[in-house]
Structures are given as C-alpha cells and as structure tokens.
Amino acid sequence: MRPVYVHASGSYGTRVTEAPADLKAALREQTGHHIRRTNRFIDLALLGGHRCVQDRDLPSSTGIYLATGQGDAASSAEMVRRSHRDGITPMPFEFINVSSNAAGFTLAQSLGLDHVNLMISRRRWSFEMSLQLAMLDLAASQCEMVLLGAVDECAMPLAWHRERLGLAVETAVGEGSHWFLLSREPAHALAEIHPPVFLKDRAALERLLAEHGKSVSHSSTGWNLAQEADGDNDLPGQQLDYLEQAGYYDTNVGAGLDRFLELAAPGDRWLHVEAEYGSGEQAQYAVLEVVRA
C-alpha cells in the first residue's frame, strides 16, 4: 500500500482537571453558526473537523473516518444512569445523539458531504486501524480525499471516568479532537504518512527499529508502552513527548501527530510506537511513520 499525504490539520485538545470547557462558543466562532441539538462529543468532532477544513471546498467524494476509543462516553453514561436510577425515558434527541454515527453524520451535514462516513471504535489502535481503512479506500479510489479524525471526551466525574478507563486515581486525563485531511496527491502536502505496521512481538519491533533507526529524527511511545520502565529506551531519534501535555485518552496519538507537524522541519521523520496486551503477557505493537514535507 502506498503512502498518503496530509494536506491540512486542525484540532482541539486539553488536559482536564475540572469540568470540561463548554465548546458551544468556540464552535459558533469557528463555523459562524449555532448548531443546535448536539451533545458534547458531537461538538468536539465538529470543532476539530472545522478547524481542519477551514474554508476549503472539499470534493463530493470526501470520506469521513472518525476514530474513537470511548465514543460518546458522557451522554451515554448519563442516559444510562438516569434510566436505571430514576426510570426516566431518554428524550428522542438524547437517544439519537449517542448512536455510533451521530457525530460523523453531523460533521458531514455541516460540511455539505454525502459520501463514506464511518466511526471506528476500538480501545487500542483505533486511529491506526482507521488510518489503514482510509488508506485502502483511497487506494481503491473509493474516496478522492479523506477527513480522518481522532476524538475522545472526558466524562464527569473524573473519578468515575478514570475507573471506567482502568486508570490509577492520580492519572492525568484529557480529551481531544484531532483531524487530518488526506489524499494520494503529494503536491503541496504537509506530510507523508506511511501505512501503519502491526507487529506480533518485541523481536519484530526490534528488527523494524534496527532498519529505520538512522533515518528517524523523532520518536514517541503511546500510553501503554510509556508505562513500561524501559518503554522508550530503544527508540531512535529525539524523543517527542506529547503525553504530558495531552493527558490520557484513547486516541491521544492524534495529539502526537499534531505536535510533530507543528515542530518538525522538512524531511524530519517521526516514528510512533504503541503496545497492546492481549490475554497473555506478550505485547503486540503498532507503528506509525510520518515524514514532514
């Protein structure tokens, strides 16, 4: 599979230590419209997506691929709590807004798009999996361009949110909406993204690192790998730490890609490695490789 090219990016991301910020004002400033009957997860997707697209006219065959780990966590949790605790039936728009494709649909509607629209939800590697699927559709000419997003929100109270994610009580958490406009056209691109590589064990990762080491200028570990005592010891190049600023959310690799695009010089190469642990102790790995144009 051939690389694809990043032609625009836009995002919203922050660590969360108290009630998350209201996004309605920022969204109204970005779009010039008051978008009604949306919840916060949809607002997150809209804000990042519009910051990426700005005033570009996108081809009608532009697909939307939204990667998320938790999806609409806050509204879903609140709806279940009220239904179970108080016996309150959800209002129609409350129920519609927590369906899996509501955020992507609302973003497509606001951008005037009517093409492929997918939400890929997976606790680990949802961004990498979504990127792989988007690259396949671009290669098959199913889409002329792709709007690829990484979106996860914080749900209050934070103690419950950490428990839901299986995090320690002191873990810094965050939320974000990071979007990238992709195509197969290299002209005027910001960066080149290679197909994600999935590796079955540490030995395979070490072989890949040995092959790529001399050409890599920056590298980063995902959250899982960063928890290992020597998780980043073998990574080549300058360490690009985005986790401290972003806090934990399942798709915070989008914050890492944003940071690389912001800091890198032309020709710089970034390697991002994340681990996933199955039923046993043996880790598997996903590797992203991005070259700044």
How would you summarize what this structure contains?
The protein is α/β, with parallel strands linked by helices and 293 residues long.
Describe this structure in words.
The chain has 2 domains: about 5-190, 3-Layer(aba) Sandwich (Peroxisomal Thiolase, Chain A, domain 1), CATH 3.40.47; about 190-290, 3-Layer(aba) Sandwich (Peroxisomal Thiolase, Chain A, domain 1). The longest helix is centred in the N-terminal third of the chain and has 14 residues, at about 40-55. It has about 290 residues and is an alpha/beta fold. Strand 10 (about 270-275) and strand 11 form a beta hairpin. Strands 1, 2, 3, 4, 5, 6, 7, 8, 9, 10 and 11 form an 11-stranded mixed β-sheet that branches. The protein contains 11 helices and 11 strands. Helix 1 (about 25-30) runs parallel beside helix 2 and helix 2 packs parallel to helix 5.
Sheet bearing the most strands, described? Answer: 11 strands, mixed
Give the CATH architecture of the largest domain. 3-Layer(aba) Sandwich
The first-to-last residue Cα distance is 19 Å
SSE pattern: EHHEHHHEHEHEEEHEHEHHEE
Alpha carbon gyration radius:
19 Å
